[in-house]
Write a structure and sequence with these properties.
- The complex is a heterotrimer of chains A (about 300), B (about 220) and C (about 290).
- In chain A, about 35% of the residues lie in helices and about 20% in strands.
- Chain A is an alpha/beta fold.
- The relative contact order of chain A is 0.17.
- In chain A, strand 9, helix 6 and strand 10 form a beta-alpha-beta unit.
- The radius of gyration of chain B is 21 Å and the shape is flat.
- The chains are: A alpha/beta (about 300), B mainly alpha (about 220), C mainly alpha (about 290).
- Chains in contact: A-B, A-C, B-C.
- At the B-C interface, helix 2, helix 3, helix 4, helix 5 and helix 6 of B face helix 1, helix 3, helix 4, helix 7 and helix 8 of C.
């Protein structure tokens, strides 16, 4: 029976390749709150905003492989997640509806380049505010404060926090700050540290029991946990502070002020909470909007 | 220079990882290659066909794909657990065996027909012909290209760095975490490989020169 | 050629071969059946994990990935051929100051692992020198340097394999070095080496998969991306199978083309003094297999 399904599937697949295939997504569409698009917005003295208005569209740098944060559904091409909703919120308040947004997936390594060269108007994607980066670009926000935590399989009982990792295989992304912290604090033995190119690969290894924990910012981990709550859970207190900001051109103080105002308003009127609950909140852990750092 | 001296421990352990991976995979691939070659020259059509199919498929598969399969897909099959190191070795052996087989087979083919005919006339069996007459002679034309294949294997071990095995290919990642100049660090890695590869290349050319005049 | 090793089998040998054949079939089928069984048990044939293939966006994504692979292959192949030709010419030069450095460059890039070259381009140059190098450029440049060096060696070996009489006769006719090379040696060498060159292009095609490690969105990269899509059942094995079929088909076609060229070269020049003797055939094979 199953075999016939498969054969039929393959046949249809082959036919589809020559004609055209299914549209839409197998999963339930989940989207955040709809934002009302502001009209007649002006941001005095902002070259970036001027470029956006002339273009008539806004280009937002995002991540496409972080479920719950910035994720592109391969079947629909739609972006979803907490970061995406924040990006939409900002765009709406700058006068750009969802149909006027172009998302551009930018890998972590080239974020600063993409922003300073103007390839994206602003960047929302698990972007930790720190002083090194502030020399190249500037940050609005933070709109979320993450901290390093641990993702384990839901049947895991031995790992409860960072001090229970001894003898366990821990996975993270090569060259990332979290794995360096594990090494520096000697949370596990060097031979138990496993490094892959991105977090999805680590989660894959976690699910197939090749590693025992994945460590990075809790926001990223919650994204995976929210996606498969019956298989994964986030455990332990956070052991670092990672304020996520919206990356902007270094010299565009006007736009930075404007986006900070938008974030402050969203925090005050409960929009932030709505966005959180419809995305990362599904993992089961609540959060509140952080204090803005204006500079 | 500082990049190297400050991280000497890192470089040493990484290259030890490379050499370990290389040695295990080299021995494994030679055994695998000999088995495959025995199949490909055997009088049993089924075995010959199997050997041919294996060679044609594996030689036309990217090594990265073989690694990909063992790193991500193999655990899903839940056969039995292998460490990342063991899976990297398996990937390298599966891939390199095909090339070793081809070298051995073409080496066997360089032995003049008369040799085998003479041994058969003396009543040698297939196994005896192969073991006492053909292989000792074929060895001369097999070893130099075999060395090239194993050199390629040595260089290919770097791909394991993309699949969670710590070896020389992974040095740069640690350097960039520690804030060192990655370019200089990588050039030292390249130099490390030159030190490993050049002697093998010289050996191979030497063997080739000395042994090719024998016939 | 394999018949060198054994006579036409007699009755006993036939029986033994039959037995060995049967054992071989049983072992091979057993292994295959076991793998298929594990696939089935772990749900790799469930329709759920194959439904991704039906979606238009995914088909377009894979098509795009295939184009990315082919683009990297095409650009790298052309650049490698040019690089190879230039450095082969350099190595064949009579001037020490030219052949020395050319030899050093070729030997260096042949000895350094391709992935390290790609890393140097991608991470080293962009972070060390501040020049932004895209994954595509890094991949293509790495492929060019490595395969170009191997091709330079192939070109050189092709010219070197020609009988001395060819160039001696050309010089005797009063041709200059360049004329000898372009009118007499190169056309013959290229013809003899064409199958090897095409085989090397197979290597280029295979090695584009290394782009996966520096996150260049080629086939393998997108296979991993699709494999991690939970709403599609994380179909990493099904996707890997499809991608493997695509890679192997492309490489096999190119390899078959190389075989065809080899057969044609051999057929059209029986008894030709320039035809590669057995020794050079082995040598060519060697240059070809000495690659990842």
């Amino acid at each position: 029976m199953k075999l016939r399904h498969l054969a039929a599937g393959l046949l249809v697949g082959a036919l589809a390749l020559s004609a055209c295939g299914k549209e839409g997504s197998p999963g339930a569409e989940s989207s955040g709150p709809t934002q009302s698009v502001a009209a007649d917005v002006t941001v005095e003295g902002s070259p970036t905003f001027q470029a956006m208005t002339q273009r008539g569209r806004v280009v937002i740098g995002v991540k496409e492989d972080q479920p719950g944060l910035g994720f592109k559904d391969a079947t629909t091409g739609q972006y979803s997640g907490f970061d995406i909703e924040i990006a939409r919120l900002v765009a709406a308040n700058l006068g750009f509806g969802p149909d006027k947004i172009d998302y551009k997936a930018v890998p972590s390594a080239s974020r600063e380049d993409a922003i300073s060269r103007g390839e994206v108007d602003y960047y929302v994607g698990t972007y930790t505010i720190n002083d090194n980066r502030k020399q190249l670009i500037s940050f609005a926000g933070p709109y979320f404060v993450a901290g390093q935590s641990l993702l384990v399989r839901s049947d895991e009982t031995e790992i409860t926090g960072k001090d229970t990792l001894k003898g366990k295989k821990v996975c993270s992304v090569t060259g990332s700050t979290p794995i360096q912290r594990v090494k520096d604090q000697q949370l596990t033995e060097p031979e138990n540290i496993v490094e892959f190119q991105n977090y999805s690969q680590c989660v894959d290894q976690l699910l197939s029991r090749q590693v025992d924990a994945v460590t990075t910012d809790d926001a990223i981990l919650k994204g995976y946990a929210a996606q498969q709550p019956d298989k994964l859970k986030v455990v332990g207190a956070t052991f670092s502070t990672e304020p996520y900001g919206i990356g902007l051109n270094h010299d565009d103080a006007a736009l930075r002020g404007k986006i900070n105002d938008i974030l402050a308003a969203a925090a005050a009127d409960g929009t932030w909470k709505q966005i959180y609950d419809s995305t990362l909140g599904k993992s089961g852990s609540p959060a509140d909007p952080p204090e803005l750092q204006r500079y | 220079m500082n990049v190297l001296l400050d991280n000497l421990g890192l470089y040493m352990s990484a290259f030890v990882g490379t050499v370990e991976l290389f040695l295990v995979a080299a021995v494994g691939s030679i055994i695998g290659g000999l088995l495959l070659a025995a199949m490909r020259v055997s009088p049993v059509p089924v075995l010959r066909a199997f050997g041919t199919v294996y060679i044609n498929v594996v030689r036309n598969t990217p090594l990265t794909l073989v690694f990909f399969f063992f790193a991500f897909a193999y655990p899903r099959l839940e056969i039995f657990d292998l460490s990342f190191f063991a899976r990297a070795c398996t990937a390298l052996i599966v891939y390199t065996s095909a090339f070793v087989c081809e070298v051995v087979r073409s080496g066997v083919n360089t032995v003049p027909v008369g040799q085998a005919e003479a041994s058969r006339a003396l009543g040698f069996t297939f196994g005896q012909t192969l073991g006492s007459i053909i292989l000792p002679q074929a060895l001369r034309s097999v070893v130099p290209p075999l060395t090239s294949v194993e050199i390629a294997l040595l260089k290919n071990t770097t791909i394991a760095a993309g699949f969670a095995v710590f070896e020389a290919g992974g040095i740069y990642q640690n350097l960039s975490e520690r804030g060192y100049n990655v370019l200089v660090g990588l050039l030292w890695v390249a130099l490390g490989f030159l030190i490993l590869v050049v002697p093998l290349t010289l050996l191979q050319r030497n063997l080739e020169r000395r042994w090719s005049v024998a016939r | 050629m394999t018949t060198v090793l054994y006579d036409a089998p007699g009755p006993r040998a036939r029986r033994r071969n039959l037995l060995l054949g049967a054992v071989g079939v049983v072992v091979a089928l057993g292994a295959a059946a076991f793998v298929v069984y594990r696939f089935a048990v772990t749900g790799q044939f469930d329709p759920d994990v194959w439904q991704w293939i039906l979606y238009k966006n995914i088909q377009l994504l894979l098509l795009d990935a295939l184009l990315n692979t082919l683009r990297a292959f095409a650009v790298a192949a052309v650049l490698a051929l040019v690089f190879g030709a230039v450095f082969a010419a350099g190595r064949l030069s009579d001037h020490r100051w030219l052949s020395g450095p050319a030899t050093a460059v070729v030997e260096f890039f042949r000895a350094v692992p391709l992935l390290i070259l790609i890393f140097i381009m991608y991470f080293g140059v962009s972070r060390g020198l501040g020049i932004n190098v895209s994954a595509f450029t890094a991949l293509v440049l790495g492929l060019m340097l490595y395969n170009g060096s191997v091709l330079a060696e192939i070109f050189r070996a092709g010219v070197a394999s020609l009988p001395r009489g060819q160039s001696e006769a050309a010089y005797a006719l009063g041709m200059r070095k360049t004329q000898v090379m372009t009118n007499v040696l190169l056309p013959q060498a290229l013809r003899a080496m064409l199958p090897t060159i095409v085989s090397q292009l197979v290597v280029v095609l295979k090695d584009t998969a290394l782009g996966f490690i520096i996150l260049y969105p080629e086939l393998l990269y997108q296979a991993r991306f699709l494999g991690s899509q939970v709403q599609l059942g994380s179909p990493i094995l099904p996707v890997a199978m499809v991608v493997a079929v695509i890679y192997i088909t492309m490489c096999l076609l190119l390899s078959q083309f190389a075989h065809y060229l080899e057969r044609r070269t051999r057929r059209t020049r029986p008894g030709d003094p320039a035809a590669p003797a057995d020794g050079t055939a082995v040598e060519m094979e060697q240059v070809r297999v000495g690659t990842p």
